[in-house]
Sequence to fold (65 residues):
Amino acid sequence: MRKCIRCGTEMKEGCTIKVQGAGYGIVMSTDEDALFKGRIGSPKVAICPNCGEVSIYVDNIEKLK
Fold:
């Protein structure tokens, strides 16, 4: 459960980011020079239903270790 850093309300987790006009989306990587190496995955989004604060997070942090 994520809590909003602004108002303390429980956030709605598991939302996604969509890029308008492009079908590729966003992928995070630990290596900016390699095309597929070091991929962490797609970022997830949590949104506060009270104040609208948006939090971007990684679901699987094991790939960072």
